[in-house]
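LOG
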Amino acid sequence: MQKKQNVKITLAPLTGEDREQFILDNQRAFKYGAMEEFGLRDDHYEEDGEIISRQTIENCIDNGTAYRIRENGRNIGGVVLKIDEKTRHNHLDLLFVSPDAHSKGVGYAAWQEVERLYPETRVWETCTPYFETRNIHFYVNKCGFHIVEFFNCRHPDPHDPETGEEETYEEGGGMFRFEKQMPGR
């Protein structure tokens, strides 16, 4: 097994000029993850062959704080957060790493940088599809999140505007909700 190097990651606020590429890079990363899991038989698309729709990404960016994950001046991923300064219960909406940079410690280094930028956070929350075993491993085993809920056809997400629509959770599908309680906060 190859030893991972210490990765020096920075988070740069998303600029308007980079918004379109951010969306395309996000879709590419999510599609790659699904292809790794399911191959060409994947049917978990939101729209036009995309695992995550343009509208979903745009809504996250428009209602959150978006950053580019950068290494040596190069964009290699992105993150979108919703920060609630009053409750300090913050949400990780999106985190993606370019497939070329997978398994090099980039995602974990980016997450550490997020925690450093928001030290007042009491609780972090995020969700990931049930089939994204790579993400589940990352959030639970690397970042210290705990699975606290499983949304599915028998237990829909009450905050999801599409809940109630039959295609929200295809047979056997669903989303895991994770939380990370920050110590001493």
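LOG (cont.) second protein
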Amino acid sequence: MAAAFGIFVLTELAGEAGAAVREIQQRFDPKLARLTPPHITVVGSSGLGSIPTDTPVERIRDALAPIAATTAPMSLRLEPPHRFMQTDIVSLPLDPHGPLRTMHERIGKSGLPFKAARFRFTPHCTLSFYPTLTPQRERELLALRVTAPAIIDRLQVYLTRDPQPSKLLFELPLLG
């Protein structure tokens, strides 16, 4: 996979689901656990590519603030783990329809510029990204379940320039 470079919109997983994902990441992919909090990428990896890094932060905030102000917090089910085709990436998918898709589409129509997306909208929380999985580790990882709901109550906007650490630019609570 190509290095991440751009501005991404995430929603970090807090509470029980976030703690469960963090524990899984620490066990199966300590590097991922060290580099980023458990999260769902709303803009940057699927459906909408990342926002170009030369986009002014205030323009991004001005476009996202009305969406966050009119979007209600969500409690969503994390599906069983799934291995991304022809990779060792394992994630917890979420239903790509409903309020999460509506928010994603509203951001896409906000007037912000986006790079081309490589994949259709497939919301997920990554469990393992960096290590090569042995058949045993893959079976163990795919057998795990996170039963606590993913609580989506804010948007975080990050500047990502791999291999440098990502930098939080701002966050907006969902208030609708």
